[in-house]
Design goal:
NAD, 12 helices, about 350 residues, Rossmann fold, dTDP-glucose 4,6-dehydratase activity, NAD(P)-bd_dom_sf, binds thymidine-5'-diphosphate, dTDP_Gluc_deHydtase, three-stranded mixed β-sheet, alpha/beta, binds nicotinamide-adenine-dinucleotide
Length: about 350
């Protein structure tokens, strides 16, 4: 029975990963450590909280004692690090916490794993540290070309620079100590349980509330969208079969402009829920500082080496996602007018 230490499992991708893994395997154990920042939400895990193969620890990945205690009490096989401050706009306002959690937190985890996994002649067999990173570490693309694993790091925002710093620390533990690691760099994820500060859930929420739909700049920035379950599948494959020390880019060639995304959501909600939701709600607002123009992943390596293919096209995934938020209005309400209301209004009360 393999034991996974998942960090940040109460956030968007982490909680989807916990669900994915417990559905797929009944012979694994998952320990989820999460600080429960504004972005961590135990409601995301309600369905599995009583699963005997799952347990939760509230704690900070920067807290060495808490992390070591988990290693002391459990034989951890895999550490999957999702925990991070993840929102670019926030990183522009408050960079320090990004450096702390994303860089120092990663180092704290690496050190703990090294302490418990290292032996006199290397590392115990079958162990792996997986760092969940982002394509944003590569910077911004022009109109052509894609990010490959060999593309030089050229991050711009405090968020992406903190993630790049973390990636380099993970690489250092492989290069220096031969610690068994992998790094995955994925494009923008979407799907259930995403905090409505990110584009897709924010636009869905504002459509339902008939609030302005803020579009930064000219709306022509491009992101490469990945359905979260396809991402979880990729992480599972990299844990099992990724070559040690390697980076794997994860993306499915789903590039769309932001304005296309906003109009797609308006069309779905307008046609199916409320005909008063129209493009009149779109409000072009001041551009994000240092706004990366285009992201696009070349996923050849993970396809050829591990056989990973995304299963969900953008057209199918976006409908499933909008419908999930429509079917789970209480989840959204608890964020926008419940426990997170003050935070949410301070950050996003643009109307
Ligand atoms: P999220 O913000 O939804 O969740 C982050 C989780 O980490 C939250 O539950 C939060 O409480 C927890 N956390 C934050 N600081 C912590 C700390 N110091 N100690 C313990 N827990 C802490 O983020 P997400 O969108 O699920 O992203 C997960 C990972 O994937 C991040 O590392 C992010 O950089 C990466 N990523 C995300 C995307 C995306 O589109 N969302 C794309 C590429 C990479
Ligand atoms: P976001 O979801 O914050 O992800 P990231 O910045 O990590 O790619 O933003 C996705 C794109 O949408 C990005 O180009 C910024 C843009 N955006 C808006 O136009 N309006 C918004 O209200 C938000 C949150 C983002």
């Amino acid at each position: 029975m393999k034991t996974y230490l998942v960090t940040g499992g109460a956030g968007f991708i982490g909680s989807n990963f916990v669900h994915y893994m417990l559905k797929k395997y009944n012979d694994i154990k998952i320990i989820n450590i999460d600080k429960l920042t504004y972005a961590g939400n135990l409601e995301n895990l309600k369905e599995i909280e009583k699963n005997p193969n799952y347990s939760f620890v509230q704690g900070d990945i920067c807290d060495k004692e808490t992390i070591e205690k988990i290693f002391e009490e459990n034989e951890i096989d895999y550490l999957v690090n999702f925990a991070a401050e993840s929102h670019v706009d926030r990183s522009i306002r408050e960079p320090e916490v990004f450096a702390k959690t994303n860089v120092l937190g990663t180092v704290t985890l690496l050190n703990a794993a090294k302490k418990y996994w290292e032996t006199e002649d290397g590392f115990k067999a079958g162990k792996k540290y997986l760092q969940v990173s982002t394509d944003e570490v590569y910077g911004s693309l022009g109109e052509t070309g894609y990010f490959m694993e060999t593309t030089p790091l050229d991050s711009h925002s405090p968020y992406s620079s903190s993630k790049a710093g973390a990636d380099l620390m993970v690489k250092a533990y492989f290069d220096t100590f031969k610690m068994p690691v992998n790094i995955t760099r994925c494009s923008n994820n979407y799907g259930p349980y995403q905090f409505p500060e990110k584009l897709i859930p924010l636009i869905i929420n504002n459509c339902l509330a008939k609030k302005d739909l803020p579009v930064y700049g000219d709306g022509l920035n491009i992101r490469d969208w990945l359905y979260v379950e396809d991402h979880c599948k990729a992480i599972d494959m990299v844990i099992n079969d990724g070559r040690l020390g390697e980076v794997y880019n994860v993306g499915g060639h789903n590039e769309r402009t932001n304005i296309y995304i906003v109009k797609t959501i308006i069309e779905y909600v307008g046609n199916n829920i409320d005909s008063a939701v129209t493009e009149n709600l779109i409000k072009y607002v001041e551009d994000r500082k240092g706004h990366d123009r285009r992201y696009g992943i070349d996923p050849t390596k993970i396809k050829e080496e591990l056989g990973w293919e995304p299963e969900t096209t953008f057209e199918v995934g976006i409908k499933k996602t909008i419908q999930w938020y429509l079917d789970n209005k209480e989840w959204m309400n608890n964020i926008t007018s419940g426990q997170y209301q003050n935070y949410y209004e301070k950050m996003y009360g643009r109307n």
